[in-house]
Design goal:
mainly beta; 20-stranded antiparallel β-barrel; globular
């Protein structure tokens, strides 16, 4: 469980850096030595449409998005061990999202040659995906929106176990996310705090009023995020810092509670100011990689 958590957190860290879509980027390729790790493709509207994760730790994945009038219609995730998961977006007549429905595979896996697909359309034309759509899938979760804000999410684990998440807002900012499960004795709430400029400065996960297990605090300077501190069970576990050059993010560093560097990134820009490539080091996974941007 611990290694999965580390991998998950490192993936989120990478996404926060690699999520930058510089003007006109058509694709990005992430390499570790000569091995390709990740391939991303974008459409002319800068929307991410294809995300292939090559085999790592015995797992390969393809993620894809379809759009209409620049609005997401479906998000498709294929996982070599789990199978297919697809989210369908529902909009009202004004084009405002109202519901999201997520379906999981029911006993069927994606194609064995998952990495042979070079687009989501190719994947969706596979026999396995057509079987998934035509009956071998189950509703896993439903998300409900009001005025473009998510206010309720229901996850169906089984007939006896249903997770419910309730979201609360103030002046358009998320201030609370509450989790309950009728067979789970550990409900929790995530509370968010903001500064006067609307920057999120802290979120904390609370199981009971006297039990705040996780706290993330954020510091800004001139409107830019410069530091994130993570505290778990009252102890500092990590500090992540963000450095800028001429207003652009130039590097990041994450250290553990002992001040030992565990993750870092360095961003190199082209003469025209767009990203050329990003170097990353992840000592949790023993991995060095470089992501190239193609325009």
């Amino acid at each position: 469980m611990k290694i999965l958590l580390i991998i998950s957190l490192s993936f989120l860290f990478a996404e926060s850096v690699l999520g930058q879509n510089d003007s006109g980027v058509k694709s990005t390729v992430t390499l570790s030595g000569k091995d390709t790790l990740v391939l991303k493709k974008f459409d002319q509207n800068k929307n991410l449409v294809f995300h292939k994760i090559f085999p790592q730790y015995g797992i390969s994945q393809i993620l894809g998005w379809s759009y209409s009038d620049n609005k997401v219609q479906t998000y498709t995730w294929s996982h070599s061990n789990i199978g297919f998961v697809e989210t369908e977006y529902e909009y009202d007549s004004s084009g405002t999202v109202v519901n999201l429905y997520t379906y999981e595979t029911d006993g069927h896996s994606p194609p064995d040659d998952l990495m042979s697909f070079h687009s989501v359309n190719d994947l969706k034309n596979s026999k396995e995906f057509k079987e998934y759509v035509n009956g071998y899938r189950i509703l896993k979760s439903t998300q409900f929106f009001n005025d473009d804000l998510l206010f309720k999410e229901i996850k169906y684990n089984s007939e006896a176990s249903i997770d419910t998440f309730i979201y609360s807002y103030k002046n358009g900012y998320l201030i609370s996310k509450k989790f309950t499960n009728k067979v789970n004795s550990y409900p929790y709430e995530i509370i968010y705090e903001y500064d006067s400029k609307g920057n999120e400065i802290q979120w904390m996960k609370v199981f009971r009023s006297s039990d705040t297990t996780v706290v993330y605090s954020k510091t800004y300077e001139d409107g830019k995020l410069i530091e994130v501190k993570a505290i778990e069970k009252g102890e500092l576990t990590s500090i992540e810092t963000f450095n800028y050059w001429k207003g652009k993010l130039s590097s990041t560093q994450k250290v553990n509670k002992d001040g030992i560097e565990k993750m870092s990134s360095q961003i190199t820009y082209r003469k025209d100011g767009r990203i050329d490539y990003i170097d990353e080091i992840n000592k949790y996974l023993g991995q060095k990689k470089r992501t190239y941007y193609y325009y």
